[in-house]
Amino acid sequence: MTQATMPPDPLNATNPADGSSAAFTAERRLDQCLPGTRATISSVSDDGPVAQRLMELGLLEGSSIEIVRIAPLGDPMEIRVEEARLSIRKSEARHIHVVS
Amino acid sequence: MHTTRDAFRRVALIGNPNTGKTTLFNALTGLSQRVGNYPGVTVERKSGRLSSGAEIIDLPGTYSLAPKSPDELVVLKALLGEIPDEPVPDALVLIVDASHLSRNLYLVTQALEIGIPAVLALNMTDVAEKSGWKIDVAGLSRELGVPVVPIVASRGDGLDTLIGAIDALPIENPTPSSTMVPEFHAALDAAASRVSERFGAHEFLVRRALIDQGGSTEASLASRHGRAFIDALAHERTSLTQGGRSLAWREAQARYGWIHRISSTLATREARPKSATDRIDAVITHRVAGLAIFVAIMTLVFMTIFRYAAPLMDLIDGSFAALSGWVSNAFAGSTLGGGLIESLLVDGVIAGVGGVLIFLPQILLLFVFIAILEDCGYMARAAFLMDRLLRTCGLSGHSFIPMLSSFACAIPGVLAARSIRSTSDRLVTILVAPLMSCSARIPVYAIMIAAFIPATTMLGFLSLPGLVFASMYFLGIVVAIPVAWILRRTIARGEASTFVMELPPYRMPRVRGVSLRVWHAGRSFVVRAGTIIFAMSILIWAAGTFPRSSDVREQAEAARVQAEQTLEGESLEEELSAIDRRTATELLERSALGRLGHAIEPAVEPLGWDWKIGTAAVAAFPAREVLVSTLNILYGLEDDEETGLVERLRGETFDDGSRRFGIPAALSIMVFIALCAQCASTLAVMAREAGSWKWAVFAFVYMTGLAWIGAFVTYRLASLAGL
């Protein structure tokens, strides 16, 4: 169970051109993913009540997740886990790492 | 052993948010509902009667039994019988949304571990079927060990079967079943029973406190058992986790492991088609269209509240005027005419209660909108759109509905803050909600604008009165942002607000659900008007009536006698009513209220006011709109003819004959009313909801301070600008 993960290079992650090529190799933070991304959760690196709520809602290691959209004002983001649509702030999404 | 239907006296209804729990509750109970409060916390307690006579309690919606807010803690404590006068329920109805079975089963697996006989209500099976779900009901029942009843609560399908299943439940409690890994479960049980024995706390609660580090259960137990309890928990946790993953992580893994195993065969579906919700959301939360639709919906809400409620409000106003007239007439024939009792009824009770009930149409309309927008799923999207904006002042999208409601009336706004999970967010929302311009400010804005703001147009299309009116609304919002920001960093510090929220699928609102919400909101408002406002009206009337100066009354009597001797016909009538008005003004000036007004004159003079306006502002403590009616009395007018008061305000002069009031004074009064806390019922509700009178006192002090400073700055700036 890998808990500690290296955050990916933010420049790469936010750049769509590089993001697509790096997507298959790099693990990255959920808040740095672009709308339309489908990925699998690799780790939830926090133990507080917010992380517990996310786990209760089905955001577990191994769950498939889709980034649906970012709110018009840039935050929060809408994600889909199984059938549920969730709103989650980028600050909360930071604790979730995904691989494509 | 089977039992009769009398055996189940108390049934608890629990489920995730957005599972149709309230719809089921409404369908089962209808108008037999009773809404109250759990003792000591501001969580609503909704109960009703089943057709079998049993009481059914609608517990707040929750995703799990790991509480993170006061209402979720109530669910846990209610199921364990840990709330005073609330014994353990005899049966549970667990409601789940058939399209979201896996996630909903999480709470179900936790609830079944308590060991209360339960029925699973599988709701919205019609929607699930349409989107391709195939659910093996018998298999699900076998795996969970409880009866499973498919229902469609909105259509009433399956409710008879559900009630039958509740009645057929065995009376004795089942052996709690656990979906957790046995070794982990055993170790957890042993730790929980050690701590529970030492502190005398409920074992299930202790188990939750152990797992839910930083949650509400831990905080609640720690406040009762102190530091030693926290230390004991920490000790047990260390030995349970042994440096590995947290207990919360292990619980989630275990439960979802079990759920995924059973649901992979019991709940299957064909390929997911793009749902209507996806298509609607592509527009509703679109970067440009989404914000435009948001603005359009808000404009529609406000237009309706302010424009289309007017005829209804006039109707109420007219009825109360007719009632006053009828009471006065009734007294005219008796020896009590013109006396204290008539004045108490007409000027105190009818004027006071009527002045508040007039806002009922606006409040009902607002609730129609809120109920529709919430039921169809739009409110969650509005919160999603607004979260970033509210975060700038330390709040979250959850504060959006309370703020919106406060534009009609702060009371439903403060009550709506109950849904906010974070305690600090909730407190700040309650404290700033009254800064939103509610409808009670409208009469004051209207009369000041009519009297002093010239009806000119700017840039060819902006009407100046309209602009001033709109800027009063913006003032509240603009002031609330820094106030919330400061409060969040000082007295209401605490964990950073979070915004993990479900965006439910769009659904057609139900007439029954909407009308029940509106009915409850209207009823509680009328009850409040009939109690708090009724009492305050009498109090203000008494302060404005006593002590009654006998000098003034003797002089008035002498003047009347003289007039009757020297005048006759119409001129006598005119003179007599002029004497009455003068007497009323002089009596008021010598009353407790009038004296208070004179005493505070030095404080209001820098704002450009005279003692009369000062008195009116103080008298407006029960409700802001009382300012207008008090000014009417103070300026010696008989009734609420606004043009009359407008003329009098304009005509008021200094001793040297120059005009007493102008645009600066009018703006200063409006700014004061926009920011002050002159609303006794809001303060009373704030005290109850925030849990202490000290918060109401705090709100009153900070808002009055802000109002005074705002009015002072406005008056000075406007005077300097030569307005």
Explain briefly what this protein structure is.
The complex is a heterodimer of chains A (100) and B (723). Chain A has 100 residues and is of the alpha+beta class.
Care to describe what's here?
The complex is a heterodimer of chains A (100) and B (723). Chain A is an alpha+beta fold and 100 residues long. Chain A has one domain: SH3 type barrels (Roll). In chain A, 24% of the residues lie in helices and 31% in strands. Chain A has 4 helices and 6 strands. In chain A, strands 1-6-2-3-4-5 form a 6-stranded antiparallel sheet. The radius of gyration of chain A is 12 Å and the shape is globular. The relative contact order of chain A is 0.24. Chain B is an alpha/beta fold. Chain B has a domain of 163 residues: Rossmann fold (3-Layer(aba) Sandwich), CATH 3.40.50.300. Chain B has a 7-stranded mixed sheet, sandwiched between helices. A two-stranded antiparallel sheet of chain B has the order 7-9. The N terminus of chain B is likely disordered. Classes of the chains: A alpha+beta (100), B alpha/beta (723). Chains A and B meet through helix 3 and strand 5 of A and helix 3, helix 11, helix 17 and strand 12 of B.
Mean pLDDT of chain B: 84
Strand-residue proportion of chain B: 5-15%
Instruction: Please give the count of helices of chain B.
Output: 33
The share of residues in helices of chain B is 55-70%
**What is the second-level CATH architecture of the domain at 5-167 in chain B?**
3-Layer(aba) Sandwich
* Model regions low in confidence, pLDDT < 50 over at least 5 residues of chain B: 1-5, 638-642
Give the CATH superfamily of the domain at 5-167 in chain B. Answer: P-loop containing nucleotide triphosphate hydrolases
Q: What's the number of extended β-strand segments of chain A?
A: 6
